[in-house]
Amino acid sequence: MLGAAVAQAQEMLQVQGIAPDLYLVHTVQKGETFYSLSRTYSIPPKEIAAENHLTFEQGLQIGQQVRIPLTSSNFTQGSNAAGGTPVYHKVIEKETLYRISVNYNKVPLDNIRHWNNFSGDGVQKDSYLIVGWLKSGNGAAAPAYTQTPVSPAPASTAPASPIPAPPATATSMAREEQASASITPAPPVLTPAAPVQTGTGSTTATHDTGAGSIAGTTPAAPAATPPPATGSFEQIYLQQTAGRKVTTEKGPGAWFKSNATAGKYYALHNTASRGTIVKVTNPLNGRSIYAKVLEAIPQMKQNEGLIIKLSDSAINALGTNEAKFYCELSYEK
Are 255 and 312 within 8 A, CB to CB? Predict the structure, then answer.
């Protein structure tokens, strides 16, 4: 009966706080005690009392809001965790999938994608994402919930932001979409004009009047937006930079810990849009890699002066094991 009462009261479990201090908010119903909540949420009653600065003598009052700690004893985020009661996070404005992962115990990105049936990196403001699972209590029913459809984010107005692709099997934290997954290209390019000989031998130049036509001919109507760039990060980089001005930077870089699969590299960068592919070159040995931007570099003292942070899976590919290293960047801005 206690489990049923809680089930009616708690339609959906929404996580509060930031790791390591995660918790749920429970509204006390008639007949509930520290012990009944302990059985429902699989956590010792003394921990509930301590979290709320209460004593057993005080008891609980109907309508009182009680914080329920989420710990390793009652909250799981493993890849095979589905089976308890889902715990949701409500997406706020400008929040990224990477930031959500960091805030909730660095839960692997692929676990979040798998639990919510989407792929890619885009998330939509005010949508709800499953970020973990509440373990069932000792024979008592875990709080019931209403499954809220999770809509991946639509294409952002910012250039080069990712669009969710059809569901793909998840195997690592920062694993990129399958080869068929899509990334919104940078601003649309008009239909290329036919090349015109400049009269300098083998040199060929294309003249664009701004309307997608060759100078001196009747302007053609702008072409439809090209299909999203697909393929390896290097192929996407070539598509993003084709015929466009490439921004270059030189300066110090550093690493962040990840469990990205071999050959897939990710980056934090302050000016490149999310989804942009950055070419990173180690000038000491000439080695280069292509990394996908996840979000901006966190504003922390240890990150001062950095032009990029790369997933540590790129250490061997760039041929350096220094905590900070000099590098050269190029990307479409």
Answer: yes
Kindly report the backbone phi and psi dihedral angles of residue 288, in degrees, each rounded to the nearest multiple of 5, phi listed first: -135, 150
CA 3 – CA 38 distance, rounded (Å):
11
For residue 81, give both structure tokens: 């965790």
| Distance separating alpha carbons of residues 314 and 289, to the nearest angstrom | 8
Tens of pLDDT along 70-126?
A: 998 899 988 777 667 889 999 999 889 999 999 999 999 988 988 898 888 888 888
Q: Is the peptide bond before 227 cis (omega within 30 degrees of 0)?
A: no
Q: pLDDT band for 1, please (50, 70, 90 cuts).
A: very low
Tokens 């929404």 correspond to: 14
Q: What is the phi/psi pair of residue 7, to 5°?
A: -60, -40
User: Are 300 and 220 contacting, i.e. CB atoms less than 8 angstroms apart?
Assistant: no
Instruction: Find tokens 């032009």 and name the residue.
Output: 307
User: Residues in the chain, how many?
Assistant: 333
Q: How many CB atoms lie within 10 A of CB 13?
A: 23
In whole angstroms, what separates CA 6 from the centre of its chain? 33
Spatial distance between the Cα atoms of 115 and 97, rounded to a whole number of angstroms: 13
% pLDDT > 90, the chain: 38
Instruction: Set out the domains of the chain in order of their start, with CATH numbers.
Output: 2-134 (3.10.350.10), 233-332 (2.40.40.10)
Residue 180 has pLDDT above 50, yes or no: no
User: And the tokens for 162?
Assistant: 């990712």
For residue 325 the two structure tokens come to: 């290293």
Cα separations in angstroms, 37 against 9, 31, 56? 13, 11, 13
Number of H helices, E strands in the chain: 7, 14
**Which tokens in the block code for residue 3?**
């489990």
**In whole numbers, what is the pLDDT of the chain averaged over residues?**
74
- Are 32 and 2 in contact by the 8 Å Cβ rule? The answer is yes
Residue 88: which of 73, 98, 75, 72 has the closest Cα? 75
In this structure, are strands 246-256 and 287-295 parallel, antiparallel, or unpaired? unpaired
Q: Is 181 a residue whose pLDDT tops 50? A: no
